[in-house]
Amino acid sequence: MPAGGSAGQRADIDPEETAEWVESFDGLLSTGGADRAAHILSVLEARHPRGAEAREASVTEPANPGASFTTDYVNTIPASADAAYPGDEAAERRYRAWIRWNAAVMVHRAQRPEIGAGGHIATYAGAATIYETGFNHFFRGKDHPSGGDQVFFQGHASPGVYARSFVEGRLSEAQLDAFRQERSRPGGGLPSYPHPRLLPEYWEYPTVSMGIGPMNAISQAQANRYLAARGIADTAEQRVWAFLGDGEMDEPESRGMLQLAANDGLDNLTFVINCNLQRLDGPVRGNGKIVQELEAWFRGAGWNVIKVLWGREWDELLARDHDRALVDLMNATPDGDFQTYKAESGGFVRDHFFGRDPRAARLVESYSDDDIWNLRRGGHDYRKLYSAFTAASEHRGQPTVILVKTVKGYKLGPSFEGRMASHQMKKMAVQDLKDFRDLLRIPIPDRDLEGDIYAPPYYRPDPGAPELDYLLERRRALGGAVPERRSRCTQIPLPQPKAYEQARKGSGQQQAATTMAFARILRELLRDTGMGHRVVPIIPDEARTFGMDAYFPTAKIYNPQGHSYMSVDRELLLAYKESESGQILHVGINEAGAVAAFTAAGTSYATHGEPLIPVYVFYSMFGFQRTGDAFWAAGDQMARGFVIGATAGRTTLQGEGLQHGDGHSHLLASTNPAVVGYDPAFGYELAHIVRAGFERMYGGEHPDPDVMYYLTVYNEPIAQPAEPEGVDVEGILAGMHRISTAASGGAPAQILASGVAVPWALRAQEMLAAEWGVAADVWSVTSWTELRREAMRADEGVLRGEARRTPYVTRRLAESSGGPVIAVSDFMRQVQDQIAPYSPHRFLSLGTDGFGFSDTRAAARRFYRVDVESIVVRTLEALALDGAVDPAVPARAAEQYRLGDLTAGSTGRAGGDA
């Protein structure tokens, strides 16, 4: 029966005939087995309403379009097929009670008046049995022969994970009491959610920015297979578990990569969705059924679906439900009603659920109201969960999702269970604590609860308690602690100097964009015999735009199914080639998926002890703007790698229009402390920055290797200069180096430019000298952001009790010939203005503020006033303000250069099209 019961179905005009068909199929299933039944269904499918015969007979589709993707609202695994439970349920129930208590008390204690730090009680309370099933029997630690599993914990359930670690002896009472007090408590406290950067030996995967966990889990499962296919790590027995919320699945990212897992056949991946039917404020689908909706989604995407909806107490009722009255009620009842039932009483459920059908009411006529109230949801039954986890682990060829029905705030009492406000409830009254203690049978006397309301004690038995010994033995058997993060990894050789030689030589008589300069560096990195096989190019369907299709025939595109079709370009030199052991992750039009792939590869050094070197290349506009939250999570997870913003700048990508022109990615990137951003102008600068990135992230010597290098490169061809003799490498890496000193005397000025604007600055220098007698020096600013960060560290020194020092940018400009500073790039002025407070001279900037538009480069640069002539006029303006030139000169120059006429602009040339 489709989700939602009879609603949307046609009336059954001949129930007797229907019963005969059902009886016939049941007989086929019992005598011929599942394979024979599946064959018959496939034959019938050929005559499905989409077939010609049916159309001719005017047979139409059922009214419910999701009907073929959903099953009855009952457990997928029948009671007769439940796996035998191998654990000691009594022992597990006892220490699960301790963990429940400690999780709630930890959050409650954090609400004492002088702290009020917040926290969530209800999520873990409802999911405790789910997690404990995994901890006791499935989650393998890093000392397991397989290498261990990867577990993505639901963010709001973190109190329960901390509470278990306390019972295990991994965390102290002082640490629990420092929940959400990471800096103010001596020795440090516990972060609110799973944050690896904040607790780097404990958490592995940040998940509380909802929607990112599902994507990253899918990419982690793919990365495991990729590592094995590339011969870098044996991950055959590892499993990725992602624990998610039903409300979380409304995030587009949560569902947006399901097809990747299905297409790759990632049977090493299991999603466990805690379907407590509630979002943060109310029902997920009050008028519908979220479990059925998710079942249809996942089945349609090619996943194996297992529903765990009802506990063992329902088995006997369902066995007696011969005419499906109970199943029909389950199918027809919307989620909003199910939530109401759990907030009421057994008598209410008898009247308002079973009482809706006399046949169903008769099933429970011998049950007391308490018996009815104790009919549990499947997510609170170890045996049902164990069966589902086992089935998921044994399933082959598809990823599996387990849809688990629970009650939010389970066992916390009537003030919490199933209530709309349970997510925001963070503390308990004295009577709530007493009732909770009694329900869990925690040996704590009343006097310990009646004193300080904010200081109910934690509970952990003395060493040697049999239940505690059992808990610890289960973890030893499964390979040790979970969660645990390790950062020890294989030391890899750094790239040979040859990888950078060509970029340092320049382009000679030819012209080359910095995008091509980087592509050549990457080509040499892939060829490096020591570490090249660890480089992971990640490209979202724009390899040809970025000149990276040259990698296809040699590195090949990773596809676990290989290349089984005849490629249309098979005879071409740069043919599109896929392979089971391919090196390139070509993720399609999917920036969010690309960041997830980057994160999985960039944290392989910690997850598997085997470094991968992700190089993610994308349209610069679609990086930090579209997927900034995912990059923030990557920074939290301490990913390492290179992020390349290609076709950078607001005016460089001619003709592409408003949503392709990037004038602000460096500003967005600067908000992420883990991103080291550079905007180089020349290939030799790129070479030194990439080399320094490798040394920092993979050399094993830097005190802070857990960063991502963001490099913007351009598609505008220029004559790439050879590296000058005695080049200022320190300046390139620090953020600025002088590339041209004024050749003649005159009023001094300093022109600072980055990226594609550096050639404009050099031409402006010539015009200022020849036409206005101004002696301007030109600096290539490789990183406005790194200059600002260093300056901020310098000027905060006094506040940290250190001696004051001069920021690098201030010192370098003070050492110059003087004069005002004019800063320009193909980005908005705020990017350049980052360093304005640290200039020792007058500071004026030019930038591409505003929306982008489609036009020639010359017209766009004249429109934004960043072209050569605008730089000249801005420099004259600054000199006039300083009294170094006549105040009338800037206006005269602006009129002479026709700055108001877009057709008069000539800065930039065509070429390097997107």
UniProtKB/TrEMBL annotation:
Positions of Mg(2+) binding: 246, 276, 278
All copies of domain Transketolase N-terminal, residue ranges: 120-313
Metal-binding is among the record's keywords: yes
Sequence ranges assigned to domain Transketolase-like C-terminal in this UniProt record: 735-866
UniProt keyword Transcription, yes or no: no
Catalysed reactions, as listed in the record: N(6)-[(R)-lipoyl]-L-lysyl-[protein] + pyruvate + H(+) = N(6)-[(R)-S(8)-acetyldihydrolipoyl]-L-lysyl-[protein] + CO2
Record's keyword terms, sorted: Magnesium, Metal-binding, Oxidoreductase, Pyruvate, Thiamine pyrophosphate
Stored Pfam families: PDH_E1_M (PF17831), Transketolase_C_1 (PF22613), Transketolase_N (PF00456)
Cofactor needs: Mg(2+); thiamine diphosphate
Purpose of the protein: Component of the pyruvate dehydrogenase (PDH) complex, that catalyzes the overall conversion of pyruvate to acetyl-CoA and CO(2).
Full protein name: Pyruvate dehydrogenase E1 component
Phylogenetic placement of the source organism: Bacteria, Bacillati, Actinomycetota, Actinomycetes, Micrococcales
